[in-house]
Design brief:
The protein has nine helices and seven strands. By secondary structure, it is an alpha/beta fold. Strands 1, 2, 3, 4, 5, 6 and 7 form a seven-stranded mixed sheet that branches. Strand 5 and strand 6 form a beta hairpin.
């Protein structure tokens, strides 16, 4: 379905899921999790993000751009160290991004909790930047800090749905555990 045909109902479903009276139901559907997965066709990411920014004010929502955080991660670690660690962890790339004194996963979690401390609903965008890092949606959703948030985490997720299954960036099977998926 094209963006224009589908987006209104999908964004309305997201707003309903965020309502306070629906939080217990969200956790039940999400196996105790506290995350809303908002999938959309990767080719329509720009339209979905533009619509989100127009309709979800920054006075209420904290938009966390994973692509920008990735650049910040490389800047903090230093390109030479990233290259060296990449060679060391070539068989297990997730270790490069999830361990050490500078952890990309920890940077993401810190940004999410920072928005929460400011009373904002955290929204992860540009999550396609996670491809190749070994960090998957479940690695974020399953974090204790995420499950303890007062507001659910919203993950804008470029994926296609095929026979009831989600495929991140149209090719990688995605976990729906610990989240509610907006249809």
């Amino acid at each position: 379905m094209a963006f224009l045909d589908e987006h209104k109902a999908k964004f309305e479903n997201l707003k309903v899921s965020l309502e306070l009276q629906n939080r217990d139901q969200l956790r039940r559907k999400a196996n105790g999790g506290n995350t809303i997965l908002f999938p959309y066709p990767p080719a329509e990411e720009r339209q979905y993000l533009e619509h989100a920014r127009k309709n979800f004010p920054e006075s209420d929502y904290s938009f966390i751009n994973v692509a920008d955080l990735f650049v910040e991660f490389i800047d903090k670690l230093g390109l030479e160290r990233v290259e060296k660690k990449h060679r060391i962890y070539s068989a297990t790339p997730h270790k490069l991004f999830t361990s050490g004194e500078v952890s990309f996963l920890n940077m993401i979690i810190q940004k999410i909790t920072e928005g929460e401390r400011n009373g904002l609903i955290p929204v992860l965008i540009r999550t396609g930047a996670l491809n190749g890092t070994g960090i998957e949606n479940i690695n974020i959703m399953d974090q204790n800090a995420i499950m303890l948030l007062n507001h659910p985490l919203i993950i804008f997720y470029p994926a296609k749905k095929e026979e009831g299954e989600l495929f991140f960036l149209n090719f990688k099977s995605a976990s729906k555990y610990r989240c509610t998926v907006i249809e």
